[in-house]
Amino acid sequence: MPERAQVDLMVQLNMSVSLISARIHRYRTVINSYISDPVAYGTSKSTGRPRKLKQRDERNVARAVPNTMKSAKDFAGPYNSSRAFLASKKIKVLDWPACSPDLNPIESVWGILTRSVYKNGKQYNSIFELKDAVKAEWSKIHPSYLDNLSNSMPNRIFQVIRKNGEFTSY
């Protein structure tokens, strides 16, 4: 028996939405959506990227956060920092300011690329569409822009030193 017919029959038998959702293994919101408008059910297109957390999980996090004195360090496990983890694995790293997009010119490229790929709130229906859009926008970046970024490194370094590692105009 098709799923919609099952729901219709269970509604006629005055079964609760919770029971219906448990029997056919669908969320209650899906069942409510179908019951409220069976003709329009399933016709609307997704509005974009799916949520990472369900609304119930977001509410639980919002409730838990004010009631705890734990910090991010309490959840870090045996390593309290990336440096500690890398050191434990005997990986040598260069000294680099913690927040230094000023010293990493590719961050400027990613910013331009992101703004152009997602301009006007554009969303993509598949990874392939997104890849094509990124490739198209990447090909539009003029090589002279990349040269200017590379040539700006001495000035970037000078400004970071002058501002003792604080934010710069870059």
TrEMBL record:
It comes from the Eukaryota. InterPro entries: Homeodomain-like_sf (IPR009057), RNaseH_sf (IPR036397), Tc3_transposase_DNA-bd_dom (IPR025898). It is found in: Nucleus. GO terms for molecular function: DNA binding. GO terms for cellular component: nucleus. Residues 3-44 form the Tc3 transposase DNA binding domain. This is HTH_Tnp_Tc3_1 domain-containing protein. It comes from Caenorhabditis japonica.
